[in-house]
Specification:
Layout (H helix, E strand, L loop, with lengths): L3 H14 L3 E8 L2 H5 L2 H14 L4 E2 L8 E7 L11 E4 L3 E3 L7 H9 L10 E2 L6 E2 L6 H4 L17 H6 L4 H6 L4 H11 L11 H9 L7 E6 L8 H8 L1 H15 L3 E7 L3 H16 L15 E7 L8 H8 L23 E5 H13 L1 H6 L8 E8 L5 E6 L4 H8 L3 E2 L5 E2 L3 E6 L5 E4 L9 H6 L8 E6 L4 H15 L5 H18 L7 H15 L3 H5 L2 H9 L1 H10 L14 E2 L9 H5 L5 E2 L7 E2 L9 H5 L5 E2 L1
Parallel strand pairs: 1-3, 2-3, 8-9, 8-11, 9-10, 12-18
Antiparallel strand pairs: 1-4, 4-5, 6-7, 12-13, 14-15, 16-17, 16-18, 19-22, 20-21
Helix pairs in contact: 8-9, 8-11, 10-11, 10-12, 11-14, 18-19, 18-22, 19-20, 20-22
Length: 627
C-alpha cells in the first residue's frame, strides 16, 4: 500500500529516471489537437529523432538518456493547434504539421534556435512570441486548476505523484470528516457546475447523515454547446479528479464513487478509466487505502449524451439504469440520492480544485478571486475573437479584460481585428444570459452575474460582433433546449416547442404585433412552471436578448427586416454593380433562374423569383452579391 514513504519512493524513482533527460518535447493530445493530426506529429518526432541518431524516449523507465517525447492534455490555445512545447526553454510551436518536425528538431533540439514561422504572432503588431510567457493569451491568465494540463503526461501516475499528487488525499485520510468539511467551507469553494453552492456545506449535509452506504459522483456530463472545460480536465489531468473525489469521500464517509462522462468524450473516458486502474493497482483506490482500514473505489460510466442528465436527479436516475429524468427536490441527493443513499455530486472542475486547496493552502486559494467567489474559473472562449480556446481567470476579472487582453479583441466578419465591433457575450450556455457592451467592466463572479440576471453556468463564453442576429442566436439555443427537454413536465416540453415556433415566425417574417408579448409571457411561464433547472433556465437566452435587444426583435416583426442581415427570409439579395465582373457564375448556380444578365456586364436578381438560398453569395468570388 502506498504509505508516505512509498509515495516518496515513487517520486524519487521518477526524478531519477528523468534526470538524464536534457530536453522534452510535449505534443498536445487533447481532443482538438488530436483531431488536427497531433498524434501523427508525435510519431513523426520519434521517427526523425531516430534518423538523427537521437534516442527518442516515449516511455520513461530506468534512468533514460535522450529526448523525452510525451503527450499532454489540452494546452488551451486550441485555435492554434496542433501545439508542440519544447522544454526546458518553454518554446511553443503552433499549427505544427508533420512536414515541420525535422525543422523543429534541427533548430530547437539539436540546435539552440527557434523556427520563427511556427511561433505565435501578436494580432496587434505581428511581434513573434516564442514562449507562453510572451503570448498575451497565456500571460494574462491565472492558470491554477489548468496549470498541469498541457504539461504532464495524463496517463502517467508516477509523474502526477512527482508533482505532489495524492499527498493532499493522504493527509486527508488521517483527518476527521468534520474537519475536512470545515476546511472546505473556510476556503469558500463554490460549485463550478453552475449553481455556485458552497462545496463544504454540501459535503456537510451528507456527512451528518446516519452512518452507512454513501456515494460520491463526479458530474462529467458537460452538455453545453461549445463547452469543453470538464472534458479537457479529464483528458489532461485525470488523477486530479480522482484525488478530489477521494478527499470528498473521506469527508462524508463514502466508500464508492462514479465518474459520469458523456459518451461523446471517448478520450476522456479512456484516460479516466486508465487513471482509475493505475490508482487501484497502486493501492490508492480499493481496500485499505493508504494503508488504513478505509476503502474507496470508482467506476467510470458513460452517459448517453442527454443534456438533462447534467441535472443531479436525472444523472442519478441514469446511473441507476433508468431513463434520465429529473425528480422533485427535496429530498436532496445529499440526503437521499443514488440507490436511495446519501450522495454528493460535484462537477469535474470543482473536484480538481479540491486537492490544490489542501496542498497549496486555503490562503493562496482565497487570495485569488473575490470575497464571495474565491479562486479561479475556467471558461471555453469562442466566437468572434482573435484568440479562442480554454482559459482560466480569477473570479472578478472583467469581461473587457477577457475579450480585449486574453482573446485579443473582437473580429469583424471579414476576419479583420476591430476594437469597436463588440456586441454581446452569451455566458453560461443555453442556461445563461447575454452580457452587453455596457457590462464590459462587470466583474465575472457569482453574485455580480446574478445581479444582471445571468449566471456563470459551466463556463461557456460566446463572443458576438455586430454582424450577429440576436434573434437567431436566441433561436439557436432554444432549438438546443427543445431537443434536449426530457418531456417529463408539460410546461417545458410544450412551452419550449411553442417558443421555438414563435422564434421561427419572427425570423421567417410571419410574426404579428401579438408575437413578442406572447413569446415573453410564454418564456416566464416556462421559467416559473418547469420542474428542473433545465426548464427553469431554458428561457434565459430569449428573455435576456429581449431585454437588451428588443429593437432587433421589433425590426424583425414590424419592419420585416433583420438589422444584422442574417435572416434569409427577411433579406433582399442584390448585385453590387461596381464589384460584379459579369462572369455569370451566380446565374449558373441559381437553382430557380432568378439571376440574369449579359457577359462582362453587371447581372441582376429578380427579387420575386429569388428563394434566398444563398447559393449566389457562396459562388461569387468578388463579393458582388449582398443581402
Amino acid at each position: 500500500m502506498p504509505r508516505q514513504c512509498e509515495l516518496t519512493a515513487i517520486q524519487e524513482t521518477y526524478e531519477t529516471n528523468i534526470r538524464n533527460i536534457d530536453k522534452r518535447i510535449v505534443i498536445c493530445a487533447g481532443t482538438g489537437c488530436v483531431a488536427n493530426g497531433s498524434l501523427k506529429v508525435h510519431d513523426r518526432f520519434v521517427e526523425i529523432l531516430k534518423e538523427r541518431g537521437v534516442n527518442a524516449v516515449v516511455e520513461l523507465k530506468k534512468e533514460a538518456d535522450g529526448v523525452l517525447v510525451s503527450k499532454s492534455g489540452c494546452q488551451g490555445f486550441c485555435q492554434m493547434g496542433p501545439l508542440v512545447t519544447i522544454l526546458p526553454r518553454g518554446i511553443l510551436y503552433t499549427r505544427v504539421r508533420q512536414d515541420d518536425v525535422a525543422e523543429i528538431i534541427d533548430a530547437s533540439i539539436l540546435g539552440d534556435t527557434v523556427v520563427d514561422r511556427l511561433v505565435y504572432k501578436r494580432t496587434d503588431d505581428g511581434t513573434s512570441c516564442p514562449t507562453t510567457e510572451e503570448i498575451p493569451f497565456y500571460r494574462r491568465q491565472s492558470r491554477f486548476v489548468l496549470r498541469r494540463c498541457g504539461q504532464i503526461d495524463p496517463e502517467s501516475l508516477p509523474e502526477y505523484i512527482s508533482i505532489g499528487g495524492y499527498r493532499a488525499a493522504q493527509k486527508a485520510v488521517t483527518k476527521d470528516g468534520k474537519l475536512i468539511c470545515e476546511e472546505m467551507m473556510r476556503s469558500g469553494l463554490r460549485g463550478r457546475g453552475g449553481g455556485g453552492f458552497l462545496t463544504g456545506r454540501k459535503w456537510e449535509f451528507a456527512r451528518v447523515q446516519p452512518p452507512g452506504k454513501k456515494y460520491i459522483i463526479c458530474n462529467g456530463d458537460e452538455g453545453d454547446p461549445g463547452a469543453f472545460m470538464d472534458r479537457s480536465l479529464m483528458e489532461g489531468n485525470p488523477h486530479s479528479v480522482i484525488e478530489g473525489m477521494l478527499i470528498a469521500a473521506l469527508a462524508i464517509g463514502a466508500d464508492e464513487g462514479y465518474v459520469y462522462v458523456r459518451a461523446e468524450y471517448p478520450l476522456a473516458v479512456q484516460r479516466m478509466r486508465k487513471a482509475v486502474r493505475d490508482a487501484r493497482e497502486m493501492g490508492i483506490l480499493g481496500q485499505e487505502i493508504f494503508g488504513t482500514n478505509k476503502a474507496f473505489d470508482i467506476t467510470v460510466m458513460e452517459g448517453a449524451g442527454a443534456f438533462v442528465c447534467g441535472e443531479e436527479t436525472a444523472l442519478i436516475a441514469s446511473i441507476e439504469g433508468k431513463r434520465g429524468m429529473p425528480t422533485p427536490k427535496p429530498p436532496f441527493p445529499a440526503v437521499k440520492g443514488l440507490f436511495g443513499k446519501p450522495t454528493i455530486i460535484n462537477n469535474v472542475e470543482t473536484l480538481s480544485t479540491v486537492p490544490l486547496i489542501f496542498s497549496e493552502g486555503i490562503e493562496r486559494f482565497q487570495a485569488m478571486g473575490t470575497e464571495d467567489s474565491s479562486g479561479t474559473k475556467t471558461f471555453a472562449l469562442t466566437g468572434h475573437v482573435a484568440n479562442t480556446g480554454l482559459i482560466e481567470v480569477p473570479f472578478g476579472t472583467t469581461l473587457r479584460q477577457i475579450v480585449n487582453d486574453i482573446a485579443g479583441g473582437v473580429m469583424e466578419d471579414d476576419g479583420t481585428l476591430s476594437g469597436t465591433d463588440f456586441k454581446a457575450v452569451q455566458i453560461g450556455g443555453p442556461s445563461g444570459g447575454m452580457l452587453t457592451q455596457e457590462m464590459l467592466d462587470l466583474p465575472l463572479d457569482f453574485d455580480s452575474l446574478k445581479s444582471v440576471e445571468a449566471m456563470v453556468g459551466s463556463g461557456g463564453l460566446v463572443v458576438m460582433n455586430h454582424g450577429t442576429c440576436m434573434v437567431g442566436m436566441a433561436r439557436y439555443f432554444m432549438q438546443f433546449i427543445q431537443n434536449e427537454s426530457c418531456g417529463k413536465c408539460v410546461v417545458c416540453r410544450e412551452g419550449t416547442k411553442q417558443m421555438l415556433a414563435l422564434l421561427d415566425d419572427i425570423i421567417e417574417g410571419r410574426a404579428t404585433g401579438e408575437t413578442l408579448p406572447l413569446l415573453e409571457e410564454l418564456a416566464w411561464t416556462v421559467k416559473k412552471g418547469s420542474l428542473c433547472n433545465l426548464g427553469k433556465t431554458a428561457p434565459n437566452p430569449v428573455l435576456s436578448s429581449l431585454k437588451y435587444f428588443r429593437d432587433e426583435y421589433a425590426a424583425h416583426v414590424e419592419k420585416k427586416t433583420c438589422p444584422a442581415g442574417r435572416c434569409a427570409a427577411l433579406s433582399t439579395y442584390r448585385v453590387v454593380a461596381d464589384k460584379c465582373k459579369g462572369c455569370g457564375l451566380c446565374a449558373r448556380k441559381c437553382p430557380v433562374g432568378a439571376i440574369s444578365g449579359e457577359k462582362a456586364k453587371p447581372y441582376t436578381i429578380d427579387a420575386e423569383e429569388c428563394i434566398k438560398c444563398g447559393a449566389c453569395i457562396d459562388s461569387c468570388k468578388f463579393g458582388a452579391i449582398v443581402r
